[in-house]
């Protein structure tokens, strides 16, 4: 029976229906279902063939395997070098898979600027290894905090009272005093013809002292810590800096397959918990010492004073002061130490550069000791530091940023939930921008005054960029400037041929690019003792 209901189309023109029926019967006969299936299959194949183009993702690295993705290709000792080689083959932006993570890698200054500045709101949070969460007491550290009002208040406090240019200006006399102490220490037992000095030891001691004074108002040479025992300064540095960095550098498969975040990874957890336990015991003892100092002397202007004073007003009372102070120790000592050691190493290997730097210092300060007011008149010193940060960028790749929404980068679509990895080292080694990229040549930074380490110009970005740029840049640069200047003004460095440190190898897969072997520099005094200020 024919249906009595008519479609609106039939109501408009009943003859069309008749024509359609007769045409279908005439040309297709009984094959209607077969033809419809064929059309659907054709449509689907066109859809899949063109979908890659429609999705418009960045080019993918060849050789991606199921489950593990491109992990095997990144197995080599320095993955940032592999990432840089891929940029030469696939272009400045490409994607790869690490475990279950889709990772987009950026390798050029304009892409980094787009990601960190222009599109900051879409990728303001980091995906951190679980070790950082264990060591950082969940999200107590600033680096692990998601962007938001709590993050902003914490950062504002840190910049106002410790790291900003004004706060660092107040630390000038402290830095000067500590540089003099370092130089005096080197003069002890120094024959006039010079001797080999363990420079890593000297530099780390100075940097640790500088950081501890700025944070706690004192820097113990030795102390007793209940639960650990008697510690010398080097052991304190190991507990506060080296051990936690080693723990963070361990590869934890749970970070690569986040659906297994709940599972246990005995090895990583026990290393992290052990490092965290020792760190907590030491920091608690340091805080006790701080409280005694405060009771005896009152405020000394250190950051712990400000934290105590403002504890009530800081919005995240849940971040114990211990973690806030420890974060500044670990972030400042290690990175500045890496940069300092490479600077002295390159100066020792390049006597013509060292001579030129010495002349520049001498022309500015004559026979008195250099001070921080002189720094603006030492462009060559600035170039030496910038060039070192380019070639030996202490933080080769940034912790990945997580896309909080669908976005585009470099004209490609990047879906929400993907990771964006910034290859800072690769940008400094881009052969198109930096001819002879692997040669250390401060001239190139002198020739290009636009290089400002990531504020406006992104050709070298050792401190990251945008709103989550390293807030310690002023402290780091002020420290490097006075330290290198003081050393070169008083000593001449060269590399002893038989000390086995003539290679420029950095350590393998570690979070920062420490020189693989500690620098032993032949050190000859230029003057008889510390110059008058
Ligand atoms: C040469 C020395 C240093 C280098 C190369 C360096 C490098 C970096 C880099 C690359 C980042 C990540 C930036 C980003 O994701 O965009 C960072 C973050 C950070 N750095 Fe530094 N840093 C140095 C010194 C310092 C110092 C002296 C401090 C002082 C405490 C410090 C404190 C921090 C903090 C708190 C963060 C987290 C910022 C945030 O998440 O917003 N850094 N640093």
From TrEMBL:
The compartments listed are: Membrane
**Main localisation:** membrane
Which residues are listed for heme binding in this entry? 470
The entry's family comment says: Belongs to the cytochrome P450 family.
Please give the PROSITE patterns that the UniProt record associates with this protein: CYTOCHROME_P450 (PS00086)
Membrane-crossing ranges are: 32-50
PANTHER family referenced in this protein's UniProt entry, alphabetically: ENT-KAURENE OXIDASE, CHLOROPLASTIC
Recite the UniProt keywords alphabetically: Heme, Iron, Membrane, Metal-binding, Monooxygenase, Oxidoreductase, Transmembrane, Transmembrane helix
Alphabetically, the GO molecular function entries are: ent-kaurene oxidase activity; heme binding; iron ion binding; oxidoreductase activity, acting on paired donors, with incorporation or reduction of molecular oxygen, NAD(P)H as one donor, and incorporation of one atom of oxygen
Cofactor(s) for this UniProt protein:
heme
Give the bilayer topology. Single-pass membrane protein
Q: What is the protein named?
A: Cytochrome P450
A single Gene Ontology CC term: chloroplast outer membrane
Does the keyword Oxidoreductase feature in the UniProt annotation? Answer: yes
What the entry lists under Pfam families is as follows: p450 (PF00067)
Note the Gene3D superfamilies from the entry. Answer: Cytochrome P450
Q: Name one GO biological process term.
A: gibberellin biosynthetic process
Tell me what organism the protein belongs to: Marchantia polymorpha subsp. ruderalis
């Amino acid at each position: 029976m024919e249906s009595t209901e008519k479609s609106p189309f039939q109501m408009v023109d009943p003859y069309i229906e008749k024509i359609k029926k007769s045409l279908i019967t005439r040309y297709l006969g009984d094959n209607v279902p077969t033809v419809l299936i064929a059309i659907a299959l054709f449509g689907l194949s066109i859809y899949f063939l063109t979908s890659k183009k429609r999705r418009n993702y960045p080019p993918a690295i060849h050789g991606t395997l199921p489950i593990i993705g491109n992990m095997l290709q990144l197995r080599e000792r320095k993955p940032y070098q592999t990432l840089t080689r891929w940029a030469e083959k696939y272009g400045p932006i490409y994607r790869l898979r690490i475990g279950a993570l889709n990772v987009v890698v950026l390798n050029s200054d304009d892409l980094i600027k787009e990601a960190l500045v222009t599109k900051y709101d879409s990728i303001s949070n980091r995906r951190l290894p679980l070790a950082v969460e264990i060591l950082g007491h969940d999200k107590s550290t600033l680096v692990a905090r998601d962007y938001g009002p709590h993050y902003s208040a914490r950062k504002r406090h840190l910049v106002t009272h410790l790291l900003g240019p004004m706060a660092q200006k107040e630390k000038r006399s402290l830095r000067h005093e500590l540089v003099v102490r370092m130089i005096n220490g080197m003069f002890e037992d120094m024959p006039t013809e010079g001797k080999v000095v363990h420079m890593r030891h000297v530099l780390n001691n100075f940097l640790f002292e500088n950081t501890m004074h700025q944070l706690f108002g004192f820097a113990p040479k030795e102390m007793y810590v209940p639960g650990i025992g008697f510690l010398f300064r080097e052991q304190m540095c190991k507990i506060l800096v080296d051990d936690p960095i080693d723990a963070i550098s361990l590869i934890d498969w749970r970070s690569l397959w986040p659906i297994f975040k709940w599972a246990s990874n005995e090895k990583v957890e026990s290393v992290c918990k052990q490092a965290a336990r020792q760190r907590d015991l030491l920091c608690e003892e340091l805080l006790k010492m701080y409280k005694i100092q405060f009771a005896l002397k009152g405020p000394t202007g250190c950051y712990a004073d400000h934290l105590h004073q403002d504890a009530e007003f800081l919005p995240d009372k849940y971040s114990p002061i211990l973690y806030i102070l420890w974060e500044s120790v670990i972030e400042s000592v290690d990175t500045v130490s890496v940069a300092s050691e490479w600077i002295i190493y390159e100066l020792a290997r390049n006597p013509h550069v060292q001579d030129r730097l010495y002349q520049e210092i001498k022309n500015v300060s004559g026979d008195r000791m250099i001070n921080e007011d002189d720094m603006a008149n030492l462009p060559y010193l600035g170039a030496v530091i910038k060039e070192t940060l380019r070639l030996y960028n202490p933080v080769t790749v940034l912790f990945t940023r997580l896309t909080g929404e669908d976005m585009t980068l470099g004209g490609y679509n990047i879906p929400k939930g993907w990771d964006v990895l910034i290859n800072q080292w690769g940008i400094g080694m881009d052969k198109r921008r930096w001819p002879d990229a692997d040669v250390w040549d401060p001239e190139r930074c002198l020739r290009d005054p636009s290089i400002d380490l990531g504020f406006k110009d992104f050709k070298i970005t050792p401190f990251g960029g945008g709103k989550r740029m390293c807030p310690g840049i002023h402290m780091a640069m002020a420290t490097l400037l006075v330290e290198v200047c003081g050393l070169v003004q008083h000593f001449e460095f060269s590399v002893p041929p038989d000390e086995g440190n003539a290679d420029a190898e950095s350590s393998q897969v570690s979070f920062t690019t420490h020189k693989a072997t500690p620098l032993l520099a032949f050190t000859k005094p230029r003057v008889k003792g510390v110059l008058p200020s």
